[in-house]
C-alpha cells in the first residue's frame, strides 16, 4: 500500500475505469449522468485519488454491463485452475465495513464465481441496481446473521441459511449481528 492509503489494486482499478469510459466513448459528464455518480468522484476514482466504494463500483458495473467481480478480475492476476488461499484477491470498502475475498474469480470460460463476504456489525450496503440484470446469486451465511432485501422483500438469514435469487432491482445487505457476518456468495452470470 502506498503511504497515502491507496494501494496498487486501486491504482490499476482507476486505470481500468478510465479505459472502460473511453472504450464506451463517454465523457466524464456522460458517465456521471448514466451512473448517478458525480464527475468529481469519477475523476478522483480514475486517478486513484480515492478508493472506490462498493456502491460506486456497482453503479459503474451497471453502466458497463459487468459484475463487480468481472471488473475486479480485470485488474487482478489471471485466474488459475486452483486458487490458493494466499492468491485469492481481497478488496475492502473501509467506508462500509465490507471485505470481499474472490475465492473463485471469474474466468472467461466459466459463468460462475465464489466470493466470501464479511460485514462488520452495523454495516449497511445498498445497491440501487444489479451490475447485470437477472444476475443469479446464492448467499450462504457461514457465521453471524445477515438481512438481505431484494425486490422489496426482506430476508433474515442466520448461520447455515441460504438465499437463492435473481437480481433485477435494488438490493440491500445489512449486518445486525454484534459479531459481524461472514457469508459465501455464489454468482452466476445470465
- Return the average pLDDT rounded to an integer: 89
Question: Strands across the major sheet, in which order?
Answer: 1-2-3-10-5-8
Radius of gyration computed on alpha carbons:
16 Å
Looking at the structure, what is the overall shape?
Answer: globular
Assembly state (oligomeric): single chain
Uncertain segments are 1-5
Q: How is the main sheet built? A: 6 strands, antiparallel
Strand content: 25-35%
Tell me roughly what share of residues is in helical segments. 25-40%
- Give the termini separation: 35 Å
Number of strands: 10
Secondary structure class reads alpha+beta
Number of helices: 5
Order of helices and strands: HHHHHEEEEEEEEEE
Protein name: XRE family transcriptional regulator
InterPro entries: Cro/C1-type_HTH, Lambda_DNA-bd_dom_sf, RmlC-like_jellyroll, RmlC_Cupin_sf, TransReg_Diox_bact_type
Keywords: DNA-binding
Domain HTH cro/C1-type: 17-71
Describe what you observe in this structure.
- The model is unreliable at 1-5 (pLDDT under 50).
- The protein has 190 residues and is an alpha+beta fold.
- 26% of the residues lie in helices and 33% in strands.
- Strands 1-2-3-10-5-8 form a six-stranded antiparallel beta sheet, with no helix packed on it. It has a four-stranded antiparallel beta sheet with strand order 4-9-6-7.
- The chain is built from five helices and ten strands.
